[in-house]
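To close the section, here is one more complete example, presented without commentary so you can practise reading it yourself. The ligand is phosphoenolpyruvate.
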Amino acid sequence: MKKEKIIIANWKMNLSYKESLRYIKDIKSFLVGLKNIKIILCPAFVSLADIQKEIKLKKIELGAQDVFWMEEGAYTGEVSVQSLKELGCKYVIVGHSERRGFLNETDAMINKKIQIVLSHNIIPILCIGENLEQRNDNLTAKILRDQLLEDLKIIDFKNNQQIIIAYEPIWAIGTGHEATTDQVNEAVIIIKSQLAKLYPNKDIEKSFKILYGGSVDENNVESFLDLDVIDGFLVGGASANKVHFIKLLNKIKN
Ligand code: PEP
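Output:
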């Protein structure tokens, strides 16, 4: 039997609250009918509660796009992991390059977010990846190793817990220029060998799932399907449009 693919739909800030609800009402029966594909929807915070009502018991999982690193307190505008848990989130995206870039999120902040997420038994989806300048300077391997080292510093987790790592080269995100399968393959080998060094006592294949993200759409997704080193995709832009998302998922399922 083919390995289950994980597809994370990161809607970013592309859909309003009403648009998000319309979207899920329109396609939930299609999503539920998919075999061998685990769908994790990551809407904006404000839509989480009502999206959860729509997908409850329907085999579609819910994730948040971010979280704060403290349990509670005077942190205006931030959202706690407890709230996310109460809303039914099983996953949280951490360290997305848009947050690293636009909001100056550091590896130290990302590290604290991963710690709190794991402590609540939620699965972090850690995004890592190099920018174009770093790739051109042959720094990709160093950047990936350093980000893993910093983001996962002193992070331990139980054998029944998991971390998802999304390899997301910044130059491929939202640009329409996806990485080649060779580039993804090379990056994943680097990621897995660094994880093996950081977690010598863990079964890396079981404890970590590795995804690729960066301009994946219905036109290019098939080229990645035979790439056994990845467990699925983190899809941004193409997941925010239901017509494109359905086409993309149809290519995966066939
Ligand atoms: C993302 O949001 O992480 C992403 C990969 O976006 P896009 O698919 O639009 O490149």
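Once you have examined the tokens, check your reading against these statements. The chain has a mean pLDDT of 96. Residues 40 and 74 are 30 Å apart (CA to CA).
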